[in-house]
Amino acid sequence: MLFNSLNFAIFLPVVFILYWFVANKSLKFQNILLLISSYFFYACWDWRFLFLLIFSTMLDYFSGIKIAESNNLKARNFWFWLSISINLGFLGVFKYYNFFIESFAAGVANFGLTINPLILDVLLPVGISFYTFHGLSYVIDIYKGRIKAEKNLVDYSVFVSFFPLLVAGPIERATHLLPQIKKERFFDYSKAVDGLRQILWGLFKKVVIADQCAQYANDIFNNSAEYPGSTLVLGAIFFAFQIYGDFSGYSDIAIGTARLFGIDLLRNFAFPYFSRDIAEFWRRWHISLSTWFRDYLYIPLGGSKGGTWMKIRNTFIIFLVSGFWHGANWTFIVWGFLHALYIMPSVIFKTNRKNLDVVAQNRFVPTLKEILQMSLTFSLVAFAWIFFRANNLEHALAYISEIFSKSLFTYPKYYKIDSKKVLFMILFLFILVEWIGRKNEFAIEKIGCKTPKLLRWCFYYLIIFAIFNFLGKEQQFIYFQF
Question: Cβ(407)–Cβ(228) under 8 Å?
Fold first, then answer.
């Protein structure tokens, strides 16, 4: 059930009405309703994988209790590693088995050996990377003594499977979400309106920005051998806006939907394309994942407490693991490696905490230095996206080699450009709105709040019109494949 589908447009109001007008007298009934709704939402993708979600939930629930109740270290370690190994085992089998076995077969082939590996023909359970990380952080936090084990199975199950974040995040923490699930909730009109506003902007990002850019990005990447370098640069830029509009759009819809039920989710994006360096970019892009790796991998490895070489080692580890988390393909690993290289100057010269404020904090127009910094950062990010989007390493390298050829200095030859110039205008207006709202949680959070009601509603109806005008075949969100 896609957020941008008719089914969800029916599902959400039904759950909302039942939640606030039928189950509102009891927190227990509200949480049971959220759990049933979440399982139904997930079953609409593939009901068979619902059992895997339930098993993972039960595993971490009982493991957490056993860890908390164990009086000796041996028993605690047993239940801790049982949960970790089974969770990572499921993730490894479904997501990485074929990659490892095929890479091994290709490796031994270099020595003249031929093997016919057993390839698993199974679908990747949607959201498995996200709900697995929910469970892992919960068990780790109990093991480290940061939180107490949750005894209420329904409350814990809602934490893992809450439908707005179930299939593509944000990746929540038990310390943040569980207390909200256990606390009585009351309808807040202003909070609900704010949630609807964020949903609206998320749908705009997905339908108008991401899906339209996807048409051109897909065409250029899938036929890259036919286009000059200048057109391939255009394709990389289209994909950069596609993946941002797609993923941040999903996060906006998820966060806004949760607010309709009185729940606040972690922020996942903070206008990353306005970053002045790569370190700032990673504080603003997929925040819930980058902070997860920081807290559960980077810091346990020693973080920044050791010498320079330890910082470099730890940085490369988290970026390579982050790349591998995104998919079982060498292209994602190279993508992570590139970002590790990008951030090295900040790590070595200790400038990674330099740009903590919003760009052009008290100004509308950025300085020339800020413009150059943002342009360079965006260019580096867009270049790395080529590996993220390419089918394989050969495709990525061929794509890049054509960019760095004489054809880079030619006029972009793309037969759809002249007939679709409206997209460039929409992108310009989109960037302008994002720039105006860059100090807020999302771009249109406060835009128009101090203007006359007529103008404000005209702005909202313009967004709605654009969404329906570009709404076509339901397009799946990119991060569902991760």
Answer: yes
Q: What is the pLDDT of residues 406-446, one digit of tens each?
A: 988 888 876 655 556 788 899 999 999 999 999 999 999 98
Other Cβ atoms within 10 Å of 76 Cβ, number = 17
Q: In 3D, which of 165, 167, 158, 163 has the Cα closest to residue 41?
A: 163
Q: Using CA atoms, how far apart are residues 415 and 223, in angstroms rounded to an integer?
A: 13
Mean per-residue pLDDT, 392-408: 94
Q: Is 326 a catalytic residue?
A: yes
Separation CA 13–CA 129 (nearest Å): 28
pTM, two decimal places: 0.93
Residues 6+ apart with CB under 8 A from 175: 141, 146, 147
* Contact residues for 136 (Cβ-Cβ < 8 A; gap 6+): 60, 83, 84, 87, 88, 296
pLDDT tens per residue, range 66-96: 999 998 999 999 999 999 999 999 988 888 8
Task: Output the average pLDDT for the chain.
Answer: 91
**CB–CB of 41/50 below 8 Å?**
no
Using CA atoms, how far apart are residues 416 and 164, in angstroms rounded to an integer? 36
The answer to whether the beta carbons of residues 126 and 49 sit under 8 Å apart is yes
Question: What's the rounded Cα separation, in Å, for the pair 476 and 191?
Answer: 28
Residue of 134, 176, 286, 326 marked catalytic: 326
Closest C-alpha among 470, 475, 462 to residue 5: 475
% of the chain at pLDDT higher than 90: 72
Q: Where are the alpha helices (DSSP H) in 301-351?
A: 308-326, 330-348
Q: What is the pLDDT of residues 259-312, one digit of tens each?
A: 999 999 999 999 999 999 999 999 999 999 999 999 999 999 988 787 888 999
Q: How many helices (H) and strands (E) does the chain have?
A: 19, 0
H or E segment to which residue 378 belongs: helix 368-389
Contacts for 77-86: CB closer than 8 Å, 24+ residues apart = 80/139, 80/143, 83/59, 83/135, 83/136, 83/139, 84/136, 84/139, 86/59
- CA–CA gap between residue 137 and residue 87 (Å, rounded): 11
